[in-house]
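I wish you would study the pair of lines that follows with an eye to the fold:

===
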Amino acid sequence: MTHQVRTAAAALCAAALVATLPLGAAGEKIDYEAINKIKEQGLQLQNSKVMEISSWLTDVYGPRLTGSPNIQKAGEWAVAKMNEWGLQNAALEKWSSDRGFARGWTNDKFYMAAVSPQAFVIPGTPNAWTPGTDGPVRGEVIVVPETTSEDLQKYSGKLKDKWILGQSAPDVAAYWSAPASRNTTEELEQLELATPPSPEFGVARPGGPGAAGAFSGRGRGGAGGFNRNDFFLAQGALGLLITLPRGHGIYSVTGNRNGEPDKTLRTINIPAEQYGRIVRMVEKNQPVTIEADIKSTYYPNPPLFNVVGEIRGTDKADEIVMLGAHFDSWHASTGATDNAAGSAAMLEAMRILKQSGVRLRRTVRIGLWTGEEQGLVGSAEYVGAHFGSRQQLPATTPPAGGAAAPDAAGQRGGGGGRGAALGPLELKPEHAKFAAYFNIDNGTGAIRGVYLQGNDAVAPIFREWMEPFRSLGMTTLTIRNTGGTDHQSFDRVGLPGFQFIQDEVEYGTMTHHTNLDSYERLQPNDMRKNATIAAAFAYLAANRDEKLPRKPLPGPVAAGARGTRGQ
């Protein structure tokens, strides 16, 4: 998942003006015999395949950076499994354009260690799309906290073949509270309110993604968007070492797909403990020499795709219900909670629907999206190709501060933000045939309810749908919006798109985009619950007489308007 955490959980939908959700019954027809078949297939350990799917995606295929050979192999495996289960039209559906992914990238080797004044290993991972070293290299460390062009001039001619540490040593807080958590009854009750009762509720936890940028060592700084990384590169530096203040051996990665290899500063993410040790030694006038051997490979014109497959419906087969999650990940670990967890749960949901033999009136389709981490790109591509899109209008003024232009989806780096002006919505015929989209992208935690995205009319329907899963802890509906993930691509063109509320577990504190995001962080009981609930919601949406209610179609978006995250 791109940047949604509890901050997004606390975000208000612009339409959320009421204090509580409607309580009236919807009179839904629920076939409990079919629901029990779904539960039997999904919840019983001897039947469930969700952890096996998870292991294939993480252990075998590893990190799934968009445009890499890994994600290609993982996508081919997913298509083969869907065919094995008897799904139809399973395929890798190509994007219509490269959307800035001119090259794929993999890190094939990483070794880094201090060699003097004493030797110690430095664990780490390069940022994506940064170059390797062309063999072993050595260089001294220099600490450069300055950020403006004027202040950096004193380093001219002094950075060649140096490893740069761009800030002082971080203060690392202890884990004064458990890094893993579940939503309490009080938190879920507060989430049901349209207006958060206090600013404390929904604030990102210390050390989580909300605090990550505080010590990221970002290159941009100073007036006019001056990028000091360009200065470091021009001065011949070997690279930049960056860290996060969370410590405990944890670091996170990112990357810029648009950079030219020979114009990109080599950037290495390392834990705060090693970073701090090096800084403190340098401050004591103890020169530190680092040796590194890094191999990275670029892949021009990589295949870019979404993974799709479906179970055809019966009397309403031309109408579509979709389940989805993003398939791509960052590369410091194997992308388990972000977001093999969602992909595996949705694949398992499709297997459950097929294996249980329940009747589906509408066609149920899965979409596993790539390019999510770069701004919901894959899901935006799919929605634009099938349902509707907006054309980005020509910019009248350059972005403030030299900021990069957002993707057509209106996102930067998956997190939303201020976008360019967007024209009127252009609908395709399939738009009228769409029933619902359900997304999983909040880690491994158990589903506790649904974000309604300001769609009051679906609340009574979902209340009845949740009743068979109350014993599993699914009790909560909130009118609020959550952002930073692929349901937004559907919501922004007026389609009913929803993200499930999930327990946090260790998502913000330990696993989101970090080197700890491995299979071991998945919670098997939660994973089985999530796959079962997703299958049941797809079943219920596929079989009700009418499609789910929709919000009014959105109008044009003015330049500078914020995306839906955080509203």
